[in-house]
């Protein structure tokens, strides 16, 4: 046995490798993505012209004034949208969280009616957050017209479902002792929440809400692409008119807004830790929400909002179209979506690994600063925005989606990869260097084994995200289910649109189940190994 | 000469770690390095294996000054220096077979080394070395599945597999029980003797040093207090060496926190 040791990991490795290849190869014809085409002389020339057109950024006063107003609208829509989402999410969380259940806290038997009600509400939340906010925005633009109102409504519903779920989970993750004691003393649901759970859970609830506000601002900017006002709508116009100078000004402003929001959210987190910070934070949040509504209200009044027409619009979606031809189309769209996400993530993995090496400071300070800047740029621009730029570069269709996902995800993963490289212990690699190993070999033997599992976990998590993203990139013309949905809505084929939205919901739900299963397996496997 | 220090000093930041160290080890010689913690034993070994560059004086290894070598030359020189570390520098998730095979990376081409990560090409050779440290059954195990003592023996197996001409060992048996420690020191010494390699080992245990090494070097406060044949090292010297030793400071590395998983489903 000693003379012929057989590697027990060889067969699994071969199988995994073959599986990966078998999944990856078909994505090329499915998405029409041709990596060679990117380096083709003609494409390079078009791209160079396109990029050169970005300079100098547009800076005339009229345009800048317009950008300013649009930026405020974007911020206001995000803030008002999040406020609405909290109004939706808080009651849902209060009603559905298991942390307040009498039967979970004491030995009482659960009431069947109440449980059925909670399941119903949980189902509503799944529906609300299952459709991406950009799809909600698209629907509301069709229902109530162009402007910022659809953005606010879309954020309110999609984020409302999300906040409801996460708030409930945060409450469930708190220690139960106090709540149990209160419950035993006869306190009702509101009292247990107010005295037993809220004081401990508040910091986490607030910090999650602030994080969501950051997300809402990005989302609100992007919603302009479907006509929901703000900076995104200006960007959409400028891109369609191929005005590079305006595009670069808008991108810069967008990045500034993102950086600014990150600063505000850091500040608010610090406020939360100080004594009176909580009150200051709550006060300024309410003020911000009111100011946002005040800024947006005149435009809403002008547009007019009609509840009856909204209902009529909603009823036209029913019944969803279930013809075999459409189902086949949806199947194709779903496959295209999956292929886009898979190929985009795989490319991003390679790109992120290449960028993470300089970004972790392995090739000196200047390279590190440059790589970080590039990563921040890639990450700072949302995938939908990348997609609308990629459509210009490589044309309509899923190839643009692949490119967009690859670019944005390279930035996200690259930063995470660089962090793992910086956190990994340096001793193993150094020990190999001084026994004469080259740079690359020492890295692969000394550091890579340490970070590899983490990299895969991040890529898996991001890949899941990318499937959701790929489903909507088509809204700006980058293929997949989103493109079909956009087309159906443009042609007022509302039953078809309904089927497509259902398909998206189904895909998202399947994905959630699959990733939960995978994660459990992974945890069981690693728990076993340790 | 396998290893020569000529009036070597080492400063790290503002503190002087080693001062005026001169010593010479002939080919095939074996010597033990003893002294209180903080005396500079580890630093001396790290100077010898080219991790540290001397602030003063010259270190020459196997007849060459590593700091005046061309990169290629340095690499082949380094391939002949093997180090056993006190805390074995093994990636937690690496498999034992690769951790040991890494000992020969200095003598292999890049491509061959990288391919070996996918499919170990000398599993039999690694298994043979592991057998010598009683870990034959751990060939395919992952390093984080091993106990501290087993990991230390994997580190030793790597050096045995490397088969360098100069073997340096920094308290290689601190995580082993006394019987295993004794056996391991003997095994390293036997291996060096059999191959005619030079061995310099720092040890916490004076008894182990006296039992297995013909030459003892006592280090105190960054200077050599004595450098004598075993027969001339008497109790008084040992007492003087460890006089005034403070309680050993806790020099374990802080545990690395795994970066948390980001929250939020999509954004």
UniProtKB/TrEMBL annotation, chain A:
The chain crosses the membrane at residues 45-63, 75-95, 134-159, 215-235, 247-265, 277-297, 338-363, 384-407, 492-511. GO terms for biological process: transmembrane transport. It is found in: Cell membrane. SUPFAM superfamilies: MetI-like. Keywords: Cell membrane, Membrane, Transmembrane, Transmembrane helix, Transport. Gene3D superfamilies: MetI-like. Residues 71-265, 334-515 form the ABC transmembrane type-1 domain. It is a multi-pass membrane protein. GO terms for cellular component: plasma membrane. It comes from the Bacteria. Belongs to the binding-protein-dependent transport system permease family. This is Phosphonate ABC transporter, inner membrane subunit. It comes from Pseudogulbenkiania ferrooxidans 2002.
From TrEMBL, chain B:
The keyword Nucleotide-binding applies. SMART domains: AAA (SM00382). Keywords: ATP-binding, Cell membrane, Membrane, Nucleotide-binding, Translocase, Transport. One of its GO terms (molecular function) is ATP hydrolysis activity. Residues 3-246 form the ABC transporter domain. The keyword Cell membrane applies. InterPro entries: AAA+_ATPase, ABC_transporter-like_ATP-bd, ABC_transporter-like_CS, MetN_ABC_transporter-like, P-loop_NTPase. Pfam families: ABC_tran. PROSITE patterns: ABC_TRANSPORTER_1 (PS00211), ABC_TRANSPORTER_2 (PS50893). PANTHER family: AMINO ACID IMPORT ATP-BINDING PROTEIN, PHOSPHONATES IMPORT ATP-BINDING PROTEIN PHNC. This is ABC transporter related protein. It comes from Pseudogulbenkiania ferrooxidans 2002.
